[in-house]
Amino acid sequence: xxxxLASFAQSVSFALKTSPNIxxxxxxxxxxxxxxxxxxxxxxxxxxxxTEWDLYMGTTTNxxxxxxxxxxxxxxxxxxxxxxxLQARVYNASGTSQTGTSFFxxxxxxxxxxxxxxxxxxxxxxxxxxxxxxxxxYTTQPQCYSFKVDLKATPGLTYRAGSYSLRVDFVLIQDL
Amino acid sequence: MISxxxxxxxxxxxxxxxxxxxxxxxxxxxxxxxxxVTMDLQGILNLTMTNDPTVNFSFxxxxxxxxxxxxxxxxxxxxxxxxxxxxxxxxxxxNWVQVDAYSTTGTPTLPSEILEVQSVRAxxxxxxxxxxxxxxxxxxTNSGVAAGVPTAATxxxxxxxxxxxxxxxxxxAALANPTTNQFRIHYRLKPGIPATFPNSTVALxxxxxxxxxxxxxxxxxxxxxxx
Lengths: 176, 227
What we know:
The complex is a heterodimer. By secondary structure, chain A is mainly β. Chain A has one domain. Chain B contains 4 helices and 12 strands. At the A-B interface, strand 1, strand 2, helix 2, strand 3 and strand 11 of A face strand 1 of B.
């Protein structure tokens, strides 16, 4: 019985995590108006064995959907900065991310954006179709199991000067 | 009979227990990667003069003295701000500085107020002193500005003293908001004959008219956060 269980070993994991810290400094009008883009700020390397998987992302803050305020530099403007001013673009060589090649607004992790799969039990999708979710590895098929993530912030001019922060979470989970 | 039932129940419990263990072995697998993002929104106040800052008035004819000289759209100002702001103007001195005198009669002390200023964009903040029409530019003392801080006496192109609603202009960029963040300034000097500058809010000293000569005045435009 134990030998049989071992033969069905399953795992989902990110390899070579970097967990980068990003600092976006808006010190000119051009940056406020046009935004700041951090290209390829993190690369997700997926390693899954014996199971289908989902991948989603979202932000974690004290107040869902709004940046945490570290400090403010003035009194004018709104200090409730929605996380949606942050945008991400997730892509790989085969374009398997369901979000396509465009930037999309980030949301709280309670209502995440699914890059692969959905909340339901999804049908199996083989590499290299959009939504590839069958077991595989970034080492053998990086075009489907490796994702680069670009980050873009466009705050506009309505928010209060200050320092704000949040955490962007990427969750790789077994598709059940 | 009873013992047979107990035996069956034991088997059922054993089966349930087995299922319980089996369910536990299928816990949903997951892994997580994360990134901390810090965003530093720095306050920005940019005041840009988009033209030559020197303005020359040369009075060489009787009509020039009588009618005065008006310089339209002479100063153009662009405001880029990420915070609420006010824009005000004043002369850096109380009087014009005489560089050269061409005569021995008349007073060499010309108050700053002989220069009239008008902003094309009317100040949307009601009340207070403004430049919505040609009006004498206040000298340093009369403007009430001390160490760069305006007072109720200060003349504003945008906003006014105070932080209440409607007493400042909202953040914005000049290119995107030309009606609120771009200013064009007219200047007028009308000496009259004799050169008493009748439109000035401050009268000239004895003998009541200006000495012919070469004078200059420095005008300060100040952009400040509405604190």
